[in-house]
Design a protein that fits this description.
Bound molecules: zinc ion
Number of domains: 2
CATH topology of the largest domain: Alkaline Phosphatase, subunit A
Strand content: 5-15%
Mean pLDDT: 90
Shape: elongated
CATH superfamily of the largest domain: Alkaline Phosphatase, subunit A
Strand order of the largest sheet: 3-11-8-2-7-5-6
Number of strands: 13
Largest sheet: 7 strands, mixed
């Protein structure tokens, strides 16, 4: 009996094939366990027996060999990707590779090729062994079929039954890459094709020649968890020390989700005019039309249902880069760590570009769920034994890390500005929307909306940094900006505030909508996207 079972296991899991399939997974675990597919062993063991069913049913060797060849090609690609790029093969990474300059890429491969060969030669030998060691058929094909199906059903029940979780936990990495390529990549390309640069009527007012504008878009950051806004925990030790930032404390987002919030910030669309995002002119259109070089550097995943529209704006810039290449879907990226410090290097690099006028957008992963994936272990400072309090502590750790990120980004700009003192530089940091971390009596976690938007979902941080050259050149403007820090503002009017701060003259600019203008209309009734007046909530 025992021998029979062992023989059946040997048939279900032929040893060379199992090694061929699992070695790429283990290579990932060794190189970077944190970003690798933790369910990789499980999901592959689930599918190997299914893949070999045709062979056992037909008893034709060719069906077995096809599977071996298929897994070998996939494994080869995955190992190569891990060794060269230190991350898993993903649709986001393939997209990044296709955007990379070919010479740069081939030089890079040249350096790494020895370590690659060390891995690939034994892997090829293993492929050969798998190809010639075709397992024998001990049991009847019906017994085999039954065993495999039972195994598969047990496997399915042991993971969460929802679709997106099954896609992540129950399928091998290459299935997810192929699926994302077939569905999301096409939608992504379509979004990019249909959003072309628009030339708009705009010009720079005279005497404003050398300009840098940096817009840092945060993610799910609630000002109610920032000590900069008097939160009880010291989550902003770095920003608190800075004397060169202007802190606005009465800004809300009109929406409680990323797509709508970001789109309403960077386009002329707002909840009052309700212009369709595709038709609305955006900041990239404006800055491109007045001759600025534009950049988009994002640590959010490039494609997915929640990302395509925003990426289509980013792709209109002169130069864009997505540094978060770990995932195949929005859902997957929520579960993986891609720390915002990844933005420092590419940001410092584009600042060195000698174009006289630049507009740069940095899109952070910020404080999005899962909070524990948003900060490295050095920033794990707040803890609690209570389960709910622990989640709040994790969110606060992510805010503490965000403090480090924003502070560093500002320092990068400041250092760059010291070398170019004549350059008028401005930075705005704000979050797309807030986050409810059990902040009210409704006891909600996240930023979803049930009926009406909780206040915590829209109360966002809003900071401004201005270069000394800007302050000395226009002290009147500087004083107006400072005097407006408590004024009520909705971030869907950011478009106007940025045009105003950049001294852009355009019929698109509605001065009464700019938080930085002396004629700013602070009487706007802040009706949010749920139709409710924020100030009466
Ligand atoms: Zn968001």
């Amino acid at each position: 009996m025992i021998i029979k079972v062992l023989k059946l296991i040997e048939q279900v899991y032929p040893k060379y094939l199992v090694l061929l399939v699992l070695i790429p997974v283990f290579v990932g675990y060794i190189i970077n366990f944190d970003v690798s597919d933790k369910y990789g062993v499980f999901s592959n063991l689930l599918w190997i027996p299914i893949a070999t069913i045709p062979y056992y049913l037909t008893k034709k060797n060719i069906f077995y060999q096809i599977i071996v060849i298929f897994y070998f090609i996939v494994g080869l690609l995955e190992i190569t990707h891990w060794l060269l790029l230190k991350g898993p093969l993903s649709v986001a990474s393939l997209l990044a590779i296709s955007n990379t300059n070919f010479t740069e890429a081939s030089e890079f491969v040249g350096v790494q090729s020895i370590s690659l060969l060390l891995f690939l030669i034994p892997y090829t030998i293993l492929f050969y062994l798998s190809l010639i060691n075709i397992p024998q058929k001990y049991t009847s094909k019906y017994n085999y079929f039954l065993a495999v199906i039972i195994l598969f059903i047990i496997g399915l029940f042991s993971i969460m039954p929802t679709t997106s979780e099954f896609l992540v936990k129950g399928t091998p990495q290459f299935t997810r890459v192929s699926y994302a390529y077939m569905s999301d990549y096409k939608k992504y390309s379509k979004a990019i094709e249909s959003n072309q640069l628009k030339i708009v009527d705009a010009k720079l007012s005279s005497g404003n020649d050398e300009q840098l504008f940096v817009l840092i878009i945060g993610e799910s950051a609630s000002r109610n968890h920032m000590s900069l806004y008097n939160y009880k925990r010291e989550t902003n030790p770095r920003l608190n020390k800075r004397e060169d930032i202007i802190v606005f404390d009465n800004v809300v987002s009109p929406y409680s989700n990323t797509i709508n919030s970001v789109m309403s910030m960077i386009t002329e669309s707002n909840v009052e005019n309700n212009l369709p995002f595709y038709d609305a002119k955006d900041l990239i259109d404006v800055f491109s039309s007045i001759g600025f070089k534009t950049y988009w550097i994002s640590n959010q995943p490039p494609l997915g249902w929640a990302e395509n529209l925003i990426s289509s704006i980013g792709s209109k810039t002169t130069s864009y880069e997505f540094v978060n290449t770990l995932s195949n879907s929005s859902y997957e990226s929520d579960l993986k760590s891609s720390y915002d410090a990844k933005l420092f290097k590419p940001f410092a690099k584009v600042l060195k570009d000698d174009a006289p006028n630049k507009f740069i957008v940095l899109h952070l992963m910020g404080n999005h769920l899962l909070y524990t994936k948003r900060y490295p272990s050095d920033f794990d400072v707040f803890r609690s034994k209570n389960e709910k309090q622990q989640i709040i502590a994790e969110y606060d750790n992510s805010i503490f890390y965000n403090d480090y990120v924003i502070d560093n980004l500002l320092t990068i700009v400041k250092k760059n500005n010291l070398k170019k003192p004549q350059q008028s530089a401005k930075v705005i940091y704000l979050s797309d929307h807030g986050e409810n971390v059990f902040d009210d009596e409704q006891d909600i976690l996240g930023h979803h909306v049930i009926k009406t938007i909780p206040k915590a979902n829209v109360e966002i941080p809003f900071l401004v940094w201005l270069s000394p050259s800007f302050i000395t050149a226009d002290s009147t403007k500087f004083n107006i900006i400072k005097s407006n820090i408590h004024k009520p503002f909705v971030s869907d009017d950011l478009f106007h505030a940025i045009l105003d701060l950049s001294s852009i003259e355009s019929p698109l600019l509605k001065k009464q909508r700019s938080l930085f203008h002396e004629n700013f209309d602070d009487k706007r009734i802040r009706i949010l996207s749920d139709g409710m007046d924020y100030d009466k909530k």
